[in-house]
Every structure is written in structure tokens, then in C-alpha cells.
Design brief:
286 residues; alpha+beta; Type Iii Antifreeze Protein Isoform Hplc 12
Length: 286
């Protein structure tokens, strides 16, 4: 075999070996890429956060039906969010929405005001309204069956000095209508389960206009105040008409037949030992 052939053969062997090594390296690289692509992505850990299940306007009392749990990425949960397993949704029940919350928006500590926090009462009030309290007792407050959120009329009963020779006159009138109760004592929840906690309440707090606040301050000095519960099912148009109606008063003589008659007409049998005398009370005062 000539030298030329030997050289050509060596070159061919070297080329074949290089080609084989390159092919092997390329195949191994492709297999590695396929392995990487086929490997499942690491599973992202999820938590559940408390969100609004419906739009909650400012001033809304948070109730269980307003809330739901929603999955949220663990690495994107601010500390102000309520995480399931770490905090309970009961923490937010009874709180008042400070600003409007959209559907699906997380409930945060800064978005609501809780009953034991400063500014709670101010968050309950509608813009431009005021809160005033009046003294009550079980009789004047329907035996504790009036709850925050109910609407009532306020009735004033007072005694008036009559003309000379006559007794004092008593009169009652509905002085304010359709007032919203925002608290009974220190209880602001309308949950009937908490009814017993405000049965002994000594004050009722109302939402009123600035002018009504002045009127209530004066009414508490004039006489006894009582609350008359309104029906929640009463049409709003009827409420407006009633509020525009001329106020009516009820005098003591309107409810007592004796006082309405003005004098007694019965007769009295007077016994003095064995003697009796029939005395007419006609013309006598009360």
C-alpha cells in the first residue's frame, strides 16, 4: 500500500471519528433538552384569602354572606390580607366598610372599622348625618326588641300646666319619624343572637340630620321619649308621605272618657250609721 493511500485512509478515519463524536454529543444535548422540557414545573403553593363576595359600599355592616375565601399566590399576599388558617372570617363580621370594596377585592384591616376601634361610629353614618343618643328603658324601647338597623318614630309625652283650677294636662305627639337606629347601648350588630346583650341598654343612638340633632337635644328636656318601631316592609313612598303629613297630637282627654267628659255624672250612696243619703256628684270636678 502506497504512502498516499495510507494518508488518505488516516484522514478518512479521523474525519469519521470526529463526525461520530459530534453526532454523539449532539444527540446527548437533544436528549437533555427533551428531559428538561418534559420535567414538570414546580408546583406553586397557594393560600386562600378573604374577599368580598359582592360589592360593599362604604358604611355597610359586614355579614357572613358578604364574604368568601379565594385562592391567592403565597408569594404575593400582603400582611394586611386575612389568610385562611391564620385568621378567621369572624374577625370581620360586624365591622363597617370604611370605603367601597369591589367584588373579589380582599378584605383588609385598613378597609374596615371594627366595633372596638376608634372611628367606628363615624364610619356607620351616612355623609352629612349626625349621631345622637337618648335615654331609654325596657318600656320605651319595646323590651329590647329594637335592633341596630331598625327604623323607629320618636314619641314625646309631656305634662302641661293647665288653666287655674284645673289639673295638669298631658299630651303625646310623634316628633320625629323614620329614624335609623345605629346602636342600642354599646351594641351595633343587628344579629338577633346578640339581642340579650342590649336588652338592658340605657341609651339608643340614632342617625339624624344636624337640625334633628338640635331637636333631640331639646326633646330630652321636655318630657318622656318613647320609640315606636316601624315595619321594614313598609314602602318607601309611604314613609315619605307620612313624613310630610301634618303632625298629630293626642291629649289625655282623647284617650280617657272620664277626662273627655270633663266632670263626673255618677251618684254616691253615703251611709252614716243607720241613715243613708243618695248624693249626686253632678257638677263635681274630677
Amino acid at each position: 500500500m502506497g504512502l498516499r493511500r495510507i494518508i488518505v485512509l488516516l484522514i478518512a478515519l479521523i474525519a469519521a471519528g470526529g463526525t461520530a463524536m459530534y453526532a454523539r454529543s449532539w444527540i446527548q444535548g437533544q436528549q437533555a433538552n427533551v428531559t428538561v422540557m418534559a420535567a414538570p414545573a414546580p408546583k406553586q403553593e397557594l393560600h386562600e384569602v378573604l374577599v368580598a363576595d359582592m360589592a360593599l359600599p362604604a358604611g355597610t355592616f359586614v355579614k357572613p354572606q358578604h364574604l368568601r375565601w379565594q385562592a391567592w399566590p403565597t408569594d404575593d399576599v400582603p400582611a394586611s390580607y386575612v389568610l385562611k388558617g391564620e385568621r378567621a372570617e369572624e374577625e370581620m363580621i360586624g365591622a363597617v366598610v370604611r370605603r367601597g370594596i369591589s367584588v373579589g377585592e380582599p378584605i383588609t384591616d385598613g378597609g374596615v372599622v371594627k366595633p372596638d376601634e376608634r372611628g367606628f361610629l363615624a364610619a356607620v353614618l351616612d355623609p352629612g348625618m349626625r349621631a345622637v343618643s337618648v335615654p331609654i328603658n325596657p318600656t320605651s324601647s319595646n323590651s329590647g326588641l329594637i335592633f341596630p338597623g331598625d327604623r323607629v318614630d320618636m314619641i314625646l309625652t309631656q305634662s302641661l300646666i293647665a288653666n287655674e283650677g284645673e289639673g295638669a294636662r298631658r299630651v303625646s305627639e310623634t316628633v320625629l319619624e323614620n329614624l335609623r337606629i345605629i346602636a342600642m347601648g354599646a351594641v351595633t350588630s343587628d344579629d338577633p343572637a346578640e339581642g340579650k346583650s342590649h336588652q338592658g341598654a340605657r341609651t339608643a343612638t340614632f342617625e339624624v340630620t344636624p337640625k334633628q340633632a338640635e331637636e333631640v337635644a331639646l326633646l330630652t328636656e321636655l318630657g318622656k321619649l318613647s320609640l315606636s318601631l316601624r315595619s321594614l316592609a313598609r314602602p318607601e313612598t309611604e314613609i315619605v308621605q307620612a313624613a310630610d303629613a301634618t303632625p298629630q297630637v293626642t291629649w289625655d282627654r282623647d284617650v280617657s272618657r272620664v277626662l273627655s267628659a270633663g266632670r263626673l255624672t255618677s251618684r254616691l250612696l253615703v251611709l252614716r250609721g243607720a241613715n243613708s243619703q243618695d248624693v249626686s256628684l253632678e257638677g263635681s270636678n274630677r
